[in-house]
Amino acid sequence: MLDGVYDRLHKRVLMLFSLVLALTCAGLVIWDPQSFADKIGGFHAANAPALIWATCTGFIHGMGFKPRFWLWQIFFFPALAWLVMVVMLTSAFF
Description:
With 94 residues, this protein is an all-alpha fold. Helices cover 77% and strands 0% of the residues. It has 6 helices and no strands. The chain has helices at residues 2-8, 12-31, 33-39, 47-62, 70-75, 78-93. Helix 2 crosses helix 3 (33-39), helix 2 crosses helix 4 and helix 2 (12-31) packs across helix 6. The longest helix has 20 residues, at 12-31.
């Protein structure tokens, strides 16, 4: 069941979307971390691990890697990572 859901998300357009979001988040953190942190409310115990997880998940999905084990498929589920990255980027730019 989980393989079918993950397979539907394993399309080139969605993988490119994941990669672009992950590169944008990582680039903003690397380019000017203090400014990015100020715009998203600071790096603290709630949003810093979420941003790291979402960026890693975006890179994993964006590079075309598909976890085989069901637990890793749940942990690295790209749709949840998209939500986190879009919220962070939206709060940074709007």
